[in-house]
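Folds vary. Our protein:
___
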Amino acid sequence: MENREMIEKISELQELKRMRDDLDAAIESASDAIKAAMGATESAVYGPYKVTYREVTSTRLDTTGIKKAFPAEALAPYLKTSTSRPLKIT
C-alpha cells in the first residue's frame, strides 16, 4: 500500500472509531433513560418489547486477593501467558 493510501486508511479508521464512540455514548444515554424510567420495576412490557432490569449476583475469583495471599511460586503452575500484537496509532 502506498503512503497516500495508508494515510487515507488510517484517517478512515480514526473516523470510524470516533463514530463508534459517538454511538456508544448514544447507546449508554438511551439505556440510562430506560433504566431511570423503569425505576425499581424489574420487568415491563412496552408495545412489542419486554424489558427486564433485574439485579444479578455473580461470584468470581478474586485474583488480586489470591496474588496477595500466596507467593508467586505457588501460583506459577496456574498462570497462563498470552501474546498479542495491538495496532496503535498516535
Residues 42 and 53 are 5 Å apart (CA to CA). The chain has a mean pLDDT of 95. Residues 3-38 form the longest helix (36 residues). The beta strands are 43-46, 49-52.
